[in-house]
Design a protein that fits this description.
The protein folds into two domains: 2-51 and 268-401, no CATH class; 80-256, no CATH class. It has 13 helices and ten strands. It has helices at 2-15, 17-54, 83-92, 125-130, 143-148, 157-164, 207-215, 233-247, 263-306, 308-316, 321-358, 366-392, 396-401, and strands at residues 59-64, 96-111, 114-123, 135-138, 152-155, 173-176, 179-187, 202-206, 222-227, 258-262. The longest helix has 44 residues, at 263-306. The radius of gyration is 33 Å and the shape is elongated.
Length: 403
């Protein structure tokens, strides 16, 4: 009986193909939107995790001021750090493997007729170790170059392409503002971050060179700290915080004038934003499923009215009320499931296009796909039951009289 009900339902659907498609359009849009939003959201989360991993293993970043995680003006009133503070952190916190001082600004870098406004960073070789930077060509700084503040630099892949095209930058001289320096190395590309920031658009100088010839001061803007393998990052953060309060003479009850951040906080912040946006957009998209269900109920009521005489004939020749109920309920379920299948295919296609456009991984979740399909079938049952029950309760004599 069920097979016969399915056959009759398919015939009725394809007898009015355009009307059937328009009926399930809400289901299609709802399922496609939910799948696309969730898939792109999961891809963004994976990209965030990948970007944070590129910062280095077990990394803690210490910055002057507060609100660094919320984009506040950290460092605008709080005093900067010094190389002495950086060395003290490494010497007195047992969990610290490497601590690198960092200062940076933005300057125009020039080579021949090509130029680009890029990040200019002052640091030493400890930063490359902590941040897992690998050299693609050339070498890192030599100890004598770091101590003497020689005019040498290492460039990122984006800056290389802007200034040298496909050429080898090692050995060339570039001008950073009014300072000329020789390129000794090229770092391997890390690509763009989740929100489009280019991680390879920079030139790195020895910290002493940066202080003397670029900044004109000895300020250190942040400490890039790598925690030893196996050590607790939370314990390391607490030890660094206590030490920084001591070094900066912050009394009991006084607020810190610095922040100690670890890469997990960046990941939680970024994934939190992604999850909220994905949830909101998915909730809006789910409304389309409700609209689609109402559309199915409406068109099934119209179908019952149009086929009243057919229903009367079936009842008159021996069909039971539950047979009529099953027929119309199966038709509603097939309609919604058809919309679910089309919505899944469309949603995966949109997610693939969105992932490529946003440069994030394409990570479809089979569980979400199955849940969307099951929900579309549930919508068919819920919104198809009332029209099916109305058809089953028709009086055969009155139905036969219907014109």
């Amino acid at each position: 009986m069920l097979i016969e009900a399915v056959r009759l339902a398919v015939q009725a659907i394809f007898r009015n193909a355009l009307r059937s498609f328009l009926t399930v359009l809400g289901i299609v849009i709802g399922v496609a939107s939910v799948i696309a939003m969730v898939t792109v959201g999961q891809g963004s989360t994976e990209q965030v995790a990948s970007d944070v991993e590129k910062l280095g293993a077990n990394v803690v970043i210490v910055v002057p001021g507060q609100d660094a995680m919320r984009g506040g003006p950290h460092g605008t009133t709080a005093p900067m750090f010094s190389t002495r503070i950086n060395d003290t952190v490494k010497a007195r916190v047992a969990a610290v493997a490497v601590s690198a001082p960092i200062s940076q600004t933005r300057e125009r870098v020039i080579f021949g007729n090509a130029n680009r406004l890029s990040d200019v960073v002052g640091t030493d070789n400890r930063y490359f170790e902590a941040a897992r930077w690998e050299v693609a060509a050339g070498r890192l700084f030599e100890p004598g170059e770091i101590q003497a503040g020689r005019a040498v630099c290492i460039v990122g892949e984006t800056l290389r392409q802007a200034l040298f095209g496909a050429g080898d930058p090692v050995g060339a001289s570039v001008r950073i503002g009014a300072v000329s320096c020789r390129v000794i190395g090229l770092l391997r590309s890390k690509g763009a971050s989740t929100f489009g920031a280019d991680q390879d658009d920079f030139v790195i100088l020895p910290l002493a060179t940066f202080h003397r010839r670029i900044a004109g001061n000895a300020d250190v803007q942040s400490l890039f700290v790598s925690v030893r393998d196996g050590a607790s990052i939370d314990a390391a953060r607490e030890d660094i915080t206590a030490l920084m309060r001591e070094l900066r003479r912050i009394g009991p009850g006084e607020e810190d004038d610095f922040e100690v951040l670890d890469t997990r906080q960046f990941a939680l912040m970024l994934t939190g934003i992604t999850d909220v946006l994905t949830g909101l957009l998915s909730a809006v998209a789910a409304v389309s499923l409700l609209v689609g269900g109402i559309g199915i109920m409406n068109i099934m009521l119209v179908s019952v009215t149009e086929r009243t005489r057919e229903i009367g004939i079936r009842l008159a020749i021996g069909a039971r009320a539950r047979d009529v109920l099953t027929q119309f309920l199966v038709e509603a379920i097939i309609l919604s499931m058809l919309g679910g299948v089309i919505g899944i295919l469309m949603g995966l296609g949109l997610a693939l296009a969105g992932a490529r456009w946003l440069a994030v991984p394409f990570s479809p979740d089979p569980g979400v796909v199955l849940l969307s399909f099951g929900f579309s079938a549930f919508v068919g049952i819920v919104f198809g039951f009332f029209p099916a029950r109305r058809a089953a309760r028709l009086d055969p004599i009155e139905a036969l009289r219907h014109e």
